[in-house]
Amino acid sequence: MANYRRIQRSPETDINILLLGETGVGKTTFINGFVNCLFYNTLDDALKGDLKVLIPSVFAVADSETYQSIHVTVGTLNKNENSENNGQSSTQLCRSYLFQIGDRVIRLIDGPGVGDTRGMDHEARNFEHILSYVSNYEHLNGICILLKPAETRLTIFFRYCIKELLRHLHVNAKDNIMFVFTNSRATFYRPGETTTLLKVLLRELHEKTGVEVPFNTQNTFMFDNESFRFLAVCKQGHKFLHKDKNSYSDSWNKSVEQFSRLIIRILQCDLHAVKDMQSLNEAQLLIHKLSRPIGEIVTLI
Questions:
Q1: How many structural domains does the chain have?
Q2: Which domain of life does this protein belong to (predicted)?
Q3: Reported pTM
Q4: Is residue 84 part of a domain?
């Protein structure tokens, strides 16, 4: 059940999952796909039921015959979601989404994406906001870093995205980190060329800090956001994608399987105390504040 207003919450049994990723990686579609995969085991079931939308969004799809672009809107747009395609993070503020699974509650914590075109100052404020929001909870069970599977270059944003995210995490969080690849149908549900880039960054992190973040089949998950978009297109009465239904059905089944793997893996991890993350960032802030007066003292000496 995904009606978070009626869920009986218990801090001891809540499963808190933080979602982090570069702007445009598809966090919004991932979350909407998540709740629909919880309700519907197959795409046929989803087509017969109601479309579940937690985060409103707008996307464009072209008719394969006329190439006419059609804009599809899911949900009711609000101020927290920027639907314009202008390179800015779609999600403006952190927000939590709760799901009941058995006697446990899963909380997905969504925040602004990394790589916003408004600059590094805005990035820093986004991170401060995320850390402040997460501090409301005692622990995190999982930290999911969302990635595109077909990155071919170590762009500044890609490097900043991974290193900055990991820099804000306490060393104890390394085993709670999950790598989640979106839109992986195009790479045959494999990490693709991003694998090499990610290994380079994690190796650099290990050499610089001594922290070895695992990246293997156990903490890597392959999803396809396009199956949810296919569902949204069909729900608005468009029929031009129906000939590809079998392909999207396979994609839906794969995503259901991967969601199950992800939750099981996260439940196997030890809880990461949020206070450890706060202590690390408070120390970094103190060092930053002390750097100027220390420099002045050295100059005077």
A1: 1
A2: Eukaryota
A3: 0.83
A4: yes
